[in-house]
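User: Please predict the structure of the protein below. I'd like the answer in structure-token form so I can feed it into my own downstream comparison script.

Assistant: Understood. Taking the following sequence of 331 residues as input:
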Amino acid sequence: MVSTIGQSLNNQFIISSLQNRLLDLQNQIATGKKGRYFSDYSSLDASNSIIYRRSLEELDTYQETINTVNARITAMDDAMLSIRDNADEAKAFLYSLIQDTAPQTGMITDELSQHLESVEQRLNTQFGDRYVFAGSDISNAPFDSPATLDTNFNTLVTTNMVGTPTVTSIVNDSRVFNDMALGLSTTLTTASNVTARIDKNTDIDYTVFANDEGFEDVLRGMSLVANLPNPTTQEEQDNFWTIVNGAISLLESGIERIDEMQGLLGNRANQLDEKFSAHADLQADFSIFIGDSEDADITAATIELQDLDLQLQSAYQLTAQLNALSLINFI
């Protein structure tokens, strides 16, 4: 009698192996992946996949930071453009009146007060819950005391209306007032710059402070005119226009400086865009590398599945034949 136990056990092992492999292939075809867990991959594929996925997560974080900073820069640039436009309009308005001998004081001061109020509001521009012109002091409005600004410049113009001012002296006297004397917050002067990490070895500084000289000159120029009293003598009338010319000079300086700041901020935005594009290219590459490590070859898996199915059918047939050769057939 020929024993079939060994053959039967070996065949059962083959069937089990074929079934396991068949299940793996079915999962690959269904999911498109080589396996469900890293333990299903080769050690090289698993290692590569982990490394590249971590790199992708890091790049995602940098991209989110870049998007956030770009949005803040856009808010800053819009506010700066508004401040510049107000300064430019105020300057043009004053130029249009400079030949008048008898100033319409109420109309002039009202016009400049409106521009000044708009500038003050723009200096307190917020993006989300942070003040964008406050540096690291993001929770405090950088401009918080219009009364201080008005008081100081009311005193200044009152003194100069009865003195012998020149355009130069008006500009110089105005620049004695800065920071808190212009109504800016007490915490702004101790605020530090704001930076963002946009790459493993790259930090970008995108700080614009509300106490930048350009903004301060705009505040000074507008405040000079907004606080002008009505002249009552020829001397005061002459001084009135001298003060207006000093204000125009300050507005021109402020506009020039704001243009410079916008240019610098534009350069920062370009750096962010370039870095974002570089990260996007790396992300595409890493995604390909992850695919090489994790993605199954569906065509190859389908062909192998068909071949295994045939092998499994043959193994089932062999099992049936071995079962027919059991001991009972020889009794």
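That's the full token string. The mean pLDDT is 85.
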